[in-house]
Amino acid sequence: DGSTFDYEDGVYHRRLITYYPDQGTIEFGSCQGSFKSQFESLRICLHGFDLSLVSFNSQELELQHKDLRYIQPISNFAPIGSPGGDFILQDLPYIEVPYSHDVIDIKLTEN
Question: pTM for the whole thing?
Answer without folding.
Answer: 0.77
